[in-house]
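Supplementary Methods. Inverse-folding protocol.

Structures were first reduced to a discrete structure-token string of length 518. This string, shown here, constituted the complete conditioning input.
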């Protein structure tokens, strides 16, 4: 049940539409063996059934002059003998042609453009071999009939010719089916050539409709003509003839329609299953292109679409690492310059003594230290739902409440500040940092030029947080907040703070009431 319901399992276990064709990553040698077994089995089975049906129709069913005893005995011996000789010639000829055309598969290398075209045309070329052998059979048995009983020659010639059309059509579809894994490897690096699309899906559909419907109807018309020529066909005999030809026509039409439908449905179904995975967010999916018609272009088009989606997601992920996922979403929904007033909390973290660190340590060690410092800051800001707006040398500006709204931006920023102070003391003892937190009305939006811009927050709380971080560098605990932020925070967080001094920080005319952790 899982194989039919789970698109991932279907694509993995039946990438070419059937378990008979094996997995997509099978070895070239195993593929060669599988191909040989399938094609030989299909060829012998199809032609054996076709030859048997033609023999029975010509000898026992179709109306016409009674066959001479010598002709019956001769054909009873000649048919099996000719079949064995023809199949031996056909198998050897087809095997050599297949090995020559698909030699690049065993060499485990991509196909050249010439090899690609030859591979996609291989089913037609193999079918033409069978057509030649059936034409030889038509000529042989017609000449044999003319020699032994001339009046039976037209019936035998037309019956063998009709059998050739139907049998070779079925054989073509089965050969195309068996060659799907090879066609997929040929089309792996480029779409189907346009010269093959010229007689593609439309021509194939019309042809197989004609074979599946037109040839059986022609057979019934032939039976009527033979009955008129014979003249004394009884109603019982005519009923048996029509019944037998009707069974053959129904069976032939059903088989050809089913095989033709399978050849169309398989590539469409592979695209459908892969689209289901894309819809679930599974972008790491691709499907083998094994059809040389417009359906192959559909499969190749899906793979190009999936490549584009993967590239888009990679760029979006990379963009998000530089500016934050929320800013990416903001940029995707609106690319206009400007901003809006928001209530937000601001957290500013500044490393202490970074100039001395740069002078005393090798540059690589300083970069390593900064990356550890930034990793701790980003982790805590993200955990509280904030947004790291800027890395400014050895400092970090984080915003809570923009661009994504938060239920308690001040509480989130204060909680992040307390946890950040603890983690920096525990995990980065060789460096210290001052942390300032405040809250207020800011302008959040995109600034710059239409050719290059960035998302930022501007306003008095940003300046205040930066000044508070400077004060915190010499304060116990290295963390200072404004009482404005504490008063706006939820009780669960505001209870963790106590009021401190009232001072006027540099660059501001209004005094700030400080707050420190309990």
């Amino acid at each position: 049940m899982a194989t039919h319901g789970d698109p991932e399992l279907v694509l993995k276990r039946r990438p070419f539409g059937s378990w008979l064709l094996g997995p997509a990553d099978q070895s070239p040698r195993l593929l060669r063996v599988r191909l040989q077994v399938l094609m030989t089995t299909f060829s012998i089975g199809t032609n054996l059934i076709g030859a048997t049906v033609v023999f029975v129709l010509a000898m026992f069913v179709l109306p016409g002059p009674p066959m001479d005893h010598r002709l019956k005995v001769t054909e009873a011996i000649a048919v099996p003998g000719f079949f064995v000789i023809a199949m031996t010639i056909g198998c050897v000829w087809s095997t050599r042609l297949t090995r020559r055309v698909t030699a690049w598969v065993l060499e485990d290398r991509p196909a050249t453009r010439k090899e690609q075209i030859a591979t996609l045309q291989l089913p037609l070329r193999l079918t033409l071999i069978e057509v030649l052998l059936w034409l030889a059979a038509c000529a042989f048995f017609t000449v044999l009939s003319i020699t032994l009983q001339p009046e039976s020659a037209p019936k035998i010639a037309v019956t063998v010719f009709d059998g050739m059309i139907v049998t070779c059509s079925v054989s073509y579809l089965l050969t195309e089916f068996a060659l799907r894994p090879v066609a997929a490897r040929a089309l792996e690096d480029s779409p189907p050539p346009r010269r093959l699309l010229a007689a593609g899906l439309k021509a194939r559909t019309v042809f197989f409709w004609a074979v599946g419907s037109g040839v059986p109807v022609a057979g019934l018309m032939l039976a009527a003509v033979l009955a008129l020529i014979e003249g004394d066909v009884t109603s019982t005999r005519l009923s048996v003839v029509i019944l037998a030809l009707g069974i053959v026509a129904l069976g032939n039409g059903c088989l050809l329609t089913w095989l033709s439908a399978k050849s169309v449905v398989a590539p469409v179904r592979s695209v459908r299953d892969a689209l289901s995975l894309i819809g679930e967010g599974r972008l790491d999916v691709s499907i083998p292109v094994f059809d040389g018609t417009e359906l192959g272009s559909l499969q190749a088009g899906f793979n190009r679409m999936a490549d584009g989606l993967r590239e888009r997601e990679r760029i979006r992920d990379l963009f998000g690492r530089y500016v934050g996922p929320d800013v990416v979403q903001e940029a995707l929904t609106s690319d206009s310059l400007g901003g809006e007033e928001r209530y937000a909390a601001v957290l500013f973290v500044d490393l202490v003594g970074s100039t001395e660190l740069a002078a005393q340590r090798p540059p690589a060690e300083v970069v390593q230290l900064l990356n550890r410092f930034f990793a701790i800051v980003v982790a805590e800001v993200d955990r509280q739902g904030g947004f790291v707006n800027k890395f400014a040398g050895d400092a970090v500006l984080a915003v809570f409440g923009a661009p994504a709204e938060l239920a308690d931006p001040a509480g989130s920023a204060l909680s992040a500040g307390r946890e950040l102070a603890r983690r920096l003391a525990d995990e980065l003892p060789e460096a210290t940092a001052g942390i300032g937190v405040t809250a207020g009305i800011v302008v959040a939006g995109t600034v710059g030029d239409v050719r290059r811009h960035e998302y930022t927050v501007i306003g008095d709380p940003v300046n205040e947080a930066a000044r508070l971080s400077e004060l915190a560098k010499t304060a116990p605990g290295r963390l200072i907040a404004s009482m404005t932020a504490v008063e706006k925070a939820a009780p669960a967080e505001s209870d963790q703070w106590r009021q401190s001094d009232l001072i006027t920080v540099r660059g501001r005319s209004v005094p700030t009431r400080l707050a420190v952790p309990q």
